Request: fold
Amino acid sequence: MFDSVSSYLQTNIVPAAQEQGIEPVHAADTSVIVPAFNEEEALPSVLSELVSTLDVNYEIIVVDDGSEDRTSAIACEYPVRLIRHEQNQGKGAAMKTGIAAARGRKIIFIDADATYPVDQIPAIAEPLDRYDLVRGIRIEGRDNIPALNRLGNNLFVWLIGTMHQGDSLDALTGLYGLRSEVLRRMRLNSNGFDIESEIVIKAGAMRLRSKCIPIEYNERLGEKKLSPVKDGISILLRILTLATMYNPLATYIFPGLLLWSLAVILLATTVSTSIPIFETNTFIVGIMAFLTGFQLVILGLIVNLYATETKLGVQSQNLTRIAQKIPRIGGAFLSVLLIVAGTIWGILLGLEYVAVHFKYFEDTEQLLVALALIVWGFQLLCTMFFLSLFAGVLNPHE
Reply:
């Protein structure tokens, strides 16, 4: 993403300070990114505070996300770097553009609506020498957050804390900083207000060292941009989507084990009943539950493998053990036995059917088991083959 943005930046970045005869700082240690969309009312206050508070170790980058007011013109009045989007793309898109242009080894984000205390930026930047992520937690002034937004924030904080690892306290704060190499490694995808939830979720998955500092949240200047319903749904979907990637235990493995348990119960029921119809139906449901449960467990392991390979998650020790050479060979050998056994069993049942001249077939349950053995064997064989492709990632010394 950052490479594709580079050509865009070369033609769309405006050194606003230089236009005013002021030479911008090039050796900044910290980049402060201010995404802005139609913020002509609040931006002067934010930029004035930034300029008066920060020293030469900071650079200020304003990303005008397709504003239709004087946002860009106002930014040009201050010693900042201005990047313009021709069309509105969303807060997350503006932040990613700012990340691609940032020169500092530390990157701090602050909203352009004057709700966050600019004077706390140095307090966020200093700990980034020891931490990967430092967030400003809104302790005072929460009454300035609209009631519906507060309700949504509480729900999202609970969901993130329940479904994801890491610190979810005030997960949607708009004032926080990360080290640039960590931020780029996150490979952010969000283009809207769900960017904060993506960052805090990936920070937990990556086991980043984080620190929180208390801040005061002020009343916003200008018209609010966040839609409680539309953007709330986007944030919710982002949280749930990322759970399928970074919490495979809850989204795949536990449901798979639950289906396995259901399969055992249903298949055991067929042994204790003599009702033919109920027996056959139970067999079908039980076998489908068993195969689906196995597939879910395997999918959970594969998802964890992806997170490990992309360095966006912590490697599962169980996956490491399974991916070692001896377990892989054992799994492949077992899969071949299952396929051969199921195939021979099915052939024998077919021969019996031929022997009675296709008049009747009374071994439906046995045929289901034989077919299940074949499918299970192929599932297991494909899994072992897939793990062997990534064996070097999971076991570097193999």
In short: DSSP finds 16 helices and eight strands in the chain. Residues 2-245 form a domain with the Spore Coat Polysaccharide Biosynthesis Protein SpsA; Chain A fold (CATH 3.90.550.10). Strands lie at 13-14, 30-36, 58-65, 81-85, 106-109, 133-140, 176-179, 210-216.
